[in-house]
């Protein structure tokens, strides 16, 4: 299990560097990320969310998809968009409607460095876009207008303070 970094930590705003070495250490990181993702009951987890500034993320959607994306590039997005509620393991307890392209095509590498291309729609496309944003230092709340983003951050901070007080008692 890895610790998930939460809102307020500057690492979440940093851009990641490409993965250059495909070795056992990378495999161990990917395995630990999948384990952390399952334990946290999430759909996706990006390396910066566990303090690793490398361009990789994992997606696991129930029994449908389990995939690692290393050095991904979104190469095509649909004109059609859709609005879905999003949350983030790094901003626990906060959800908001976000507009994103309905379908995407992404090129990436697997854990052995082998290239692949995926065209995705629905939740799969949304998860890829959300995690891809993390690799560029972008959080889902950054897609909101500034006033709404400030409300969401204040709500998170209030909730987080209450949770800290409960733990102290």
Descriptors:
169 residues; alpha+beta; Peptide Deformylase; five-stranded antiparallel beta sheet; two-stranded antiparallel ribbon; 3 helices; 7 strands
CATH class: Alpha Beta
How many domains? The number is: 1
Note the total helix count: 3
Average pLDDT, rounded to a whole number, is: 94
Q: Report the end-to-end length measured between terminal Cα atoms.
A: 26 Å
Q: Rounded to an integer, what's the Rg over CA atoms?
A: 16 Å
Percentage of residues in DSSP E strands: 25-35%
Helix content: 25-40%
Shape: globular
Poorly predicted sequence stretches spanning 5 or more consecutive residues? none
Stated plainly, the CATH topology is called Peptide Deformylase
Task: Please give a structural write-up.
With 169 residues, the chain is of the alpha+beta class. The protein has a single domain, classed as Peptide Deformylase, CATH 3.90.45. It is built from three helices and seven strands; from the N terminus they run αβββββββαα. It has a five-stranded antiparallel β-sheet with strand order 1-2-3-6-7, sandwiched between helices. A two-stranded antiparallel ribbon has the order 4-5.
């Amino acid at each position: 299990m890895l610790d998930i970094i939460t809102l307020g930590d500057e690492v979440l705003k940093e851009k990641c560097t490409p993965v250059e070495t495909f070795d056992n250490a990378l495999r161990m990181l990917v395995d630990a990320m999948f384990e952390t993702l399952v334990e946290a009951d999430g759909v996706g987890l990006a390396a910066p969310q566990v303090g690793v500034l490398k361009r990789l993320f994992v997606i696991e959607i129930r029994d449908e998809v389990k995939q690692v994306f290393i050095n991904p590039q979104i190469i095509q997005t649909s004109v059609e968009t859709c609005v879905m509620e999003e949350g983030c393991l790094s901003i626990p307890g906060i959800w908001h409607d976000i507009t994103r392209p309905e379908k995407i095509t992404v090129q990436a590498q697997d854990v052995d460095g082998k290239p692949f291309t995926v065209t995705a729609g629905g939740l799969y496309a949304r998860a890829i876009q959300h995690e891809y944003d993390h690799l560029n230092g972008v959080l889902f709340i950054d897609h909101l207008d500034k006033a709404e983003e400030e409300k969401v951050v204040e709500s998170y901070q209030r909730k987080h303070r209450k949770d800290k007080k409960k733990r102290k008692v």
